[in-house]
Structure formats: C-alpha cells, structure tokens
Design goal:
Blueprint: E1 9-14, H1 18-30, E2 32-38, H2 45-59, E3 65-67, H3 81-84, H4 106-116, E4 122-126, H5 131-139, H6 143-146, E5 149-153, H7 168-172, H8 174-181, E6 187-190, H9 192-195, H10 202-209, H11 214-234, H12 242-251, E7 257-265, E8 276-279, E9 293-297, H13 301-313
C-alpha cells in the first residue's frame, strides 16, 4: 500500500460531478483541504456549486466553498448531462443544501488562500475546466511563484472523450488550459490515458455499500449511476474515477509513473481544438519545446481503490 507524504495543503477547484465528490473525500482525508472552489463544467455552476456544498454536508467536509466562473473565457458553456445527469449528481436523492457558499468569489479566494498558507506550499487541484485557475493567475501575476504547483485532471496522451482528440475539461475551456499549462511552475497532468485504467467495478460498489453508513449509501449510488451512464458510452459497466487521481498525484505521487513532457493546448484546429499535444519524442528538439509538465502514466489502480475505500470508511458524516 502506498503511504502518503506529509499532508500537503490543497485547494480543490471542481465541477461536481460524481468523480469530483470522491476527489473531495480523498482530499479531505489525505491532505489539508483549505478551500473548495466551484466552476462550470459537468453541469452549470447553478448545479456544481450546490453539489459541492451537498458533498461537504454528506461527507462531513468542513472546508469553505466559493462560487467561481459560470462560463469559459471565450467559448459558450458546455456541460455533460449524458454522463452526470441533469443535476450533475444523478443517482441518489440529493438532500437539501444546508450550508451557504462564502461571499468571496473563487478567484479572490484562491489568491487569498494561497497567500495565507504560502509557507505550507499550497497545491491547486483543478478537476474541471480551468477557468477559475486561469483567471486567478491573470489577476495575481505573483500567484504562480507562490504555489507549490498545480495538479490537474485533464487531457491525455492517446485520445479524447468529448472529441476524438480532446478530453472534456480541456475542450470546455482551451484558452484557460493554455494559460495554466504555460504559467511557468510545477504542473502535473493526470489524463485519460491514466484515469481510464482506474475503473469502478460492481464489487467495489458493493463493498462501499456494505459499509452501511448514510454517506456510504450515497457514495455507492453515485458510483453505480456513474458506472452505468459511462458504461453506456464504453459498452461495459464501469466508470473511470478520474478526479481522485489528480489528488493522489499530490498526496501519493508514487502511485503513478510521472514523466517530464512538453504539453501544448490546441486552440484552433477544426478537429483538434482542446487537444493536449503531448510531445512523446525521445529527444527534445529545441529549448522552446522544453518540458512544462509531469504527465501521469501507469497508475497503481488497486492501491488507488484501497485508498478511496479507506477515505470513505473513515469519512465523518455531517
């Protein structure tokens, strides 16, 4: 079993979304989670924000929640109801929201939290479109030098899921992604080539359900719905648990083979807009093409699911 490094300080930027919920549970268990910012993505912000608050309620997560961007920098907003349902969290009956988001907006909150916790080495963990992160980097040019790094779920080295060559989070706001990939500091990319090896099984759903707590029942219903809708796309039951992997790339980096790569975002291609163009050549051709990311490969999937189970099994209910 992989062991966690010293508990890192993390701000999670998310668009819940089923897999985002498990990423929040994992971040709350294995890291010092100091803030959660919501963004458009899997569903409109009008749903992702309350979904983040509901996740905090159900799993006893105390970090403050902030509302962020409701649309991409340039393109119109686009969501994924065919995977996550119209609510963004299809499956269980969603409880009413019992807590309120903070009055501070997400971009301001990211900047303030990074400065407040700078001595701890803050990681930003964006799990949806990168709009909030790009806006924060633009609003505070010093931010990139104050953070420990960015670990994002997005992109991939092989193929897309929303377009032939584009993964949803990057495709949803390529201009924001380009800003983030070129911010100049440490960046980890956990893409589809990795997360599609971390696939929910019926046995795992049953194991979570058998925990018997209200939060475990909620989790199992999320897992089953996501595995069913994703399975309709792939032709077999089981959804990839994308987003927790970006958290584990911070807390348990030995779960992945992290390789230095040059990654550029395609902004203009008719068929490739939103593509993460990962330079897989063995020889870097010029200084301009020097690596700007650690790209994740070869996840230790069995260990990842054990760590997720442990986080669920010990998760407090609010």
């Amino acid at each position: 079993m992989s062991t966690a490094a010293k508990r890192p300080t993390i701000i999670v930027d998310c668009d819940p979304g089923h897999d985002d919920v498990f990423a929040l549970v994992v971040a709350n268990h294995y890291a010092n989670l100091v803030g959660i910012t919501a963004v458009h993505g899997n569903a409109p912000l009008s749903r992702t924000l309350p979904n983040a608050l509901i996740a905090c309620d159900v799993f006893g997560i105390g970090a403050p929640v902030f509302a962020g961007a409701d649309r991409p920098l340039v393109a119109p907003p686009r969501n994924a109801p065919h995977i996550h349902g119209e609510s963004g969290l299809g499956g269980p009956e969603l409880p009413p929201v019992r807590r309120a988001a903070e009055k501070t907006g997400a971009v301001e909150a990211i900047i303030e939290l990074v400065r407040k916790h700078e001595g701890e080495g803050v990681w930003l963990a964006p799990l949806g479109p990168l709009t909030n992160i790009a806006l924060a980097l633009r609003a505070a040019p010093d931010l990139g030098k104050r953070i420990a790094g960015i670990s994002l779920m997005g992109g991939g080295t092989l193929h897309g899921n929303r377009a032939p060559h584009a993964e949803f989070n990057i495709w949803a706001d390529p201009e924001a992604a380009s800003t983030v990939f070129n911010y100049g500091g440490p960046l980890k990319m956990v893409g589809l080539n990795t997360t599609h090896q971390v696939v929910i099984t019926k046995e795992f759903v049953q194991r979570v359900s058998a925990l018997g707590t209200p939060s475990a029942k909620f989790a199992a219903e999320l897992l089953d719905f996501f595995s069913t809708t994703y399975g309709e796309q792939l032709g077999v039951y089981g959804g990839p648990l994308h987003d927790p992997c970006a958290i584990f790339a911070i807390t348990h980096p030995d779960l992945f083979d992290l390789r230095e790569k040059r990654v550029d975002i395609e902004l203009h291609g008719e068929f490739t807009r939103g593509m993460t163009a990962v330079d897989e050549r063995p020889i870097v051709q010029s200084k301009k093409e020097k690596p700007n990311a650690l790209v994740a490969y070869e996840p230790k999937s069995a260990q990842i699911f054990e760590l997720i189970y442990e986080a669920l099994a010990t998760s407090p209910s609010a």
